Amino acid sequence: MPLLAANLAAQSPQKAEVPITVERYVSLSRLEAVQVAPGGEAATFILIDADVEANRYRETLYVWRADHGAIPVAKGYTALRSPSWSPEGTFLSFLSAGPRSEPDAGAQIWLLGLDPEDEPSQLESFPSGVVDYDWAPDGSVFALTTNESSGEREFWRIQVPGGRAEHIWSGDAGIREMAVSPDGRSIAFSTNGTGAIEDYLNYNLRILDLESRRSRELTSRPGSEVSPTWSPDSRAVAFRARQDPRYPYSQVELFTVPASGGPASALTGSFDRTVVDHVWPADGNLLFTAELGTYTQLFVARESGAIESVTRGAYHFGPFDSVEGADAIYSVRQSAAETAELWRIDHSGVERLTQLNANSELWKLGRQEVVEWIAPDGLSIEGVLVYPSDFEEVRRPRVRRSGSQLPRQQRLRRGLCDH
How far apart are CA 300 and CA 1, in angstroms? Predict the structure, then answer.
């Protein structure tokens, strides 16, 4: 995808009249898991809302199309995650424990057709649930599950439509994510080899050859390599890993490694910013988001090795996605002055696609200020100072004494905010 010259000038907000409160803040919706349909005609995302009475968050799957905007689908499905489009865009899949299911029920794969009024259909039933899944280019689905008896992780191929499942391969208990190659011949996956919590820093990448059904090591550097993403030609795999694997708080870098084997190359070695997420569209360069101080921006990694900015301004971008033929990036955008919504970024600029937090445009938000100080080791640290919405320089703030109890309603909301 060519570099997008996005004009990110802030829109003029409506006049704010209602002061922000904890209750109003908790009522804000979050957008996660953005996925664009093949060709870019539609996008899906998960809307996360707080259910204050139940003291929990609820997920709702939305589909956006230009002709009808964003509408909810698969209503009532619990623990919903990992939406994905089929290669032809005829099905939308997702993981969920099902409608009105038990809290501990395992996630299964569900399918939706193109009609938003359709009810989802369960693709297959796995006793221990589905850990992860991915579409193959031929329209079948590969699912990562857990064997109830041995605890080993297993790969299954499921025909769509029809739902006939075939066991492909059994691996160790530490496999947690997978990606099918664009040519349909291999699966890249990450594993710590044991599944033990104490090995959370030891995830490496492996490749399963689907013809021979044998796996081989792809990476073996210290620390964890996660989020395998295939190049469009299936010749390389991109992944994220810590710059210094000894520390879980070390800066995250973006790497590529030849699928045939060999040393990994750091694409962001001289970039000096923490990478948050990455996507490799079938007709373009590797896209990623990275933290720039207190903001998160979109970048493109060129084949030449150059890193170029796609977005700018005092915004947070992501989650995001882009696909072949879309000629655009679909991303969540938010800032100190605007709440999270879905936006489309292309050559002509940016366009807001949703108004799911529209009521917040009338809120009086507190002023935010980036502050900077020098740590004892000499490094510069940035933070964000948030003022009360009714802050005045001449007024002294109210201070609650240590140990005093909040009302129950406020304690519930504080628990939600902590998440």
Answer: 9
Neighbours of 383 (CB within 10 A): 11
Q: What is the mean pLDDT of residues 172-177?
A: 96
Tokens of 24: 């109003």
Report helix, strand and coil shares of the chain as percent, to nearest 5. Answer: 5, 45, 50
Structural domain span for residue 372: 368-417
Q: Across residues 119-128, what is the average pLDDT?
A: 93
Domain assignment present for residue 1? The answer is no
Distance CA 342, CA 320 (A): 9
* pLDDT interval class at 399 (50, 70, 90): low
Please give the Cα distance from 380 to 372 (Å, whole number).
7
Domain count, the chain: 2
Identify the domain boundary among 364, 387, 404.
364
Strands 307-309 vs 316-321: parallel, antiparallel or unpaired: unpaired
Q: Are residues 206 and 280 in the same domain?
A: yes
Q: Which two tokens stand for residue 170?
A: 């059994």
Domain boundary, last residue among 364, 379, 394: 364
Give the E-state strand segments of 151-266 in sequence order. 153-158, 165-170, 175-180, 186-191, 204-209, 214-217, 225-230, 236-242, 252-258, 265-266
Tell me if 2 is assigned to some domain.
Answer: no
Q: How confident is the model at residue 3 (pLDDT cuts 50, 70, 90)?
A: very low
Edge-to-edge strand order for the sheet containing 204-209? 175-180, 186-191, 204-209, 214-217
Shared domain check, 346 and 225: yes
Contact 141, 124 (CB under 8 A): no
CA–CA distance, 301 with 140 (Å, rounded to integer): 31
Same domain membership, residue 260 and residue 327? yes
DSSP state of 390: T
4, part of any domain: no
Burial degree of 307 (CB within 10 A; 0-12, 13-18, 19+): middle
- Which residue has tokens 């689905």? 141
266-296: buried (b, 16+ CB within 10 Å) or exposed (e) per residue? ebbeebebbbbbbbbbeebbbbbbbeeeebb
pTM (two decimals): 0.87
Q: Does 226 map to a domain?
A: yes
